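Please fill in the sequence for the structure shown.

STRUCTURE ENCODING:
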């Protein structure tokens, strides 16, 4: 559910480096809006040396000597694929830069080896920066196998990278060594997950839990309409002896989305809703920041991450304690599209929330949206499936057998995280506010695998309405990866994989299943480090099912040292706020939609208090700017630049697509009409 960049940094399997700033380049002319050949759909082609690659829809591609240069028509976003002759990665990247920009590469910020994929024997990534233009992202990736050296140079405005990151990832993931033959699971028979295989899976999971510092987790495995395993490992809270079991509640974050889409499917199956009905006709308060698009959006688009509406989360993240469901829809009404329907994968939590509240209004138009949603989910999803422990009531969820949230401090210690941040999701609950446990979620998974039938043999929902949610509406980051309605699908291995994960402060969740093989799992964890496990656990699951090697053990082996190195590298950049910086800060700042920030001193520590939650902060430098960064467990990584505007002290928060400016004071002037963004 959270969209900001977490620290520690991205999961090991990520194809892209962390965002870096760099200068724009004049070696290749910027694209213009009159350039011909804009693709209507993704297209496969080959580089000069014969390496296959994808040009994404909405881009052009032209050969320029040894390079293939892709451009967007209007944004000056570019990806160059350059064939070079070299003996080392450093030779290769230097040669590619000479072809792309005769003056050579900009200043190198970071270089490191990346996990191998697609038949390449080595992959090395480079991240660049420049003081001249901090609003561009410039990276390179060198791929090598035999005598083939391919260098991918990515050169985009930061706003374009934020919108088009899935397309950039798709280009990189499409690059395959010429000798590479993709592994396929098509036609392979899945093994029964008997006691020995389950024991092997649990040993791997316990190894991951202990090495990554996850206090507790719960796992449920379903195969052939049978729960093969339901239980837990570790403890509910660090320092406690209370064990996690199949009844332990966790906040499941965006795993709520498949449940919300199931509620809509149930309404369709009952004849009370049509997937192709205009959303605004069914929920009059539904609007986006473009009246024409508002009228074009259908029910099926609300959970597809494909409407052209970008992520906009800061309002509920920082001031969710002051919002109700109608306020959330009011926020959505201000968000303007950045693409056409179906053009780009853009994960919008606000759109997903509107889906849940639309279903609530259809089922219970007499009730306020929040109450109507809770009742509709209870009546149409939780009660029929026997999900007795699942709830949106945070107070109820935290009684008895529940898992506390955990994060990692900047010094690498596992600590209990404050719950305040997660309370911000209450008005956003159709998107990510459910609490559940393994007992309940395996009941849900059994129904999905049984195509709508219940264990007792009765039918809960028709197959057509249920499976409509799996139809891909927009391409995601990898080849053959799609997003349907609150569910991700993947056919890279030759069989259908369905998955959705969830992240909130101190919680990680994932549900995964193979419909054609009648098997799947649910994994719940009470620490941010669980995000790393989500990156490779499906690989281990598939290894045990099909007796294949997907490198899960090697991924886990490399992970702790890499995370420790990245954390330590970042730690040395941070320091307590010095006296000059403290003197520059006002006691309070405010923004008309994001609320207020109160500066609190506790001994030698400085805290930012947002009202619903708070965090300790440290300072760092970004070029000439002073940047204050949040560091508390599970809410680390929010960065505020200390500045002034017209002589008024200000803090600037940038989420890559928008810039928010908090001005000193209690916000009275801003709320009465002052400028704030």
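FILLED IN BY: designer on duty
SEQUENCE:
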């Amino acid at each position: 559910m959270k969209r900001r960049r977490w620290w520690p940094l991205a999961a090991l399997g990520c194809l892209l480096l962390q965002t870096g700033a760099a200068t724009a380049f004049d070696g290749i002319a910027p694209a213009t809006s009159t350039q011909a050949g804009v693709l209507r759909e993704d297209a496969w082609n080959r580089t000069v040396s014969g390496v296959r690659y994808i040009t994404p829809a909405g881009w052009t591609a032209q050969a320029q000597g040894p390079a293939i240069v892709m451009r967007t028509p209007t944004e000056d976003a570019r990806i160059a694929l350059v064939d070079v002759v070299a003996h080392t990665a450093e030779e290769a990247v230097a040669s590619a830069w000479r072809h792309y920009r005769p003056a050579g590469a900009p200043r190198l910020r970071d270089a490191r080896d990346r996990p191998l994929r697609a038949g390449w024997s080595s992959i090395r990534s480079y991240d660049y920066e420049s003081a001249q233009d901090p609003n561009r992202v410039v990276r390179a990736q060198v791929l090598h196998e035999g005598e083939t050296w391919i260098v991918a140079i990515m050169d985009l405005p930061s706003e374009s990278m934020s919108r088009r990151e899935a397309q950039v990832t798709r280009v990189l993931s499409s690059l395959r060594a010429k000798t590479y033959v993709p592994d396929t699971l098509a036609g392979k028979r899945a093994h029964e997950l008997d006691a020995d295989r389950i024991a092997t899976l649990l040993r791997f999971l316990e190894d991951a839990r202990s090495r990554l510092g996850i206090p507790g987790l719960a796992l449920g495995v379903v195969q052939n309409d049978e729960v093969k395993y339901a239980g837990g490992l570790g403890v509910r809270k660090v320092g406690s002896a209370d064990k996690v079991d199949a009844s332990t509640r966790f906040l499941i974050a965006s795993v709520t989305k498949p449940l919300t889409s199931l509620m809509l499917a149930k309404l369709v199956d009952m004849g009370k809703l049509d997937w192709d009905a205009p959303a605004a006709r069914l929920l009059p308060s539904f609007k986006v920041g473009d009246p024409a698009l508002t009228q074009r959006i259908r029910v099926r688009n609300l959970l597809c991450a494909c409407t052209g509406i970008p992520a906009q989360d800061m309002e509920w993240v920082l001031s969710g304690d002051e919002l109700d469901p109608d306020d959330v829809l009011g926020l959505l009404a201000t968000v303007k599209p950045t693409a056409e329907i179906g053009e780009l994968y853009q994960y919008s939590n606000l759109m997903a929330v509107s889906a849940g509240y639309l279903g609530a209004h259809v089922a219970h138009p007499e009730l306020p949206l929040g109450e109507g949603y809770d009742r509709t989910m209870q009546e149409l999803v939780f009660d029929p499936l026997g999900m007795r422990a699942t709830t949106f009531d945070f107070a109820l969820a935290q009684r008895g057998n529940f898992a506390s949230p955990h994060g990692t401090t900047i010094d690498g210690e596992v600590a209990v995280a404050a719950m305040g941040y997660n309370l911000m999701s209450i008005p956003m609950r159709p998107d990510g506010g459910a609490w559940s446990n393994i007992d309940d979620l395996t009941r849900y998974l059994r129904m999905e695998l049984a195509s709508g039938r219940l264990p007792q043999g009765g039918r809960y929902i028709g197959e057509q309405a249920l499976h409509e949610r799996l139809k891909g509406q927009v391409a995601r980051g990898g080849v053959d990866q799609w997003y349907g309605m609150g569910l991700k699908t993947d056919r890279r291995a030759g069989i259908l994989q369905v998955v959705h994960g969830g992240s909130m402060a101190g919680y990680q969740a994932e549900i995964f299943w193979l419909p054609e093989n009648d098997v799947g799992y649910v994994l719940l964890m009470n620490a941010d480090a669980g995000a790393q496990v989500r990156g490779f656990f499906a690989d281990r699951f598939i290894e045990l099912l099909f007796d294949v090697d997907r490198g899960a053990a090697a991924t886990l082996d490399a992970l702790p040292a890499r995370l420790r190195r990245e954390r330590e590298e970042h730690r040395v950049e941070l320091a307590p706020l010095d006296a000059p910086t403290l003197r520059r800060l006002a006691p309070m700042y405010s923004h008309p939609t994001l609320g207020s920030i109160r500066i609190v001193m506790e001994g030698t520590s400085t805290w930012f208090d947002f009202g619903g939650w708070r965090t300790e902060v440290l300072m760092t430098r970004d070029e000439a700017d002073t940047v204050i960064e949040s560091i508390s467990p599970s809410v680390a990584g929010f960065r505020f630049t200390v500045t002034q505007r017209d002589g008024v002290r200000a803090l600037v928060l940038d989420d890559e697509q928008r810039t928010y400016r908090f001005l000193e004071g209690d916000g009275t002037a801003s709320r009465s009409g002052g400028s704030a963004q």
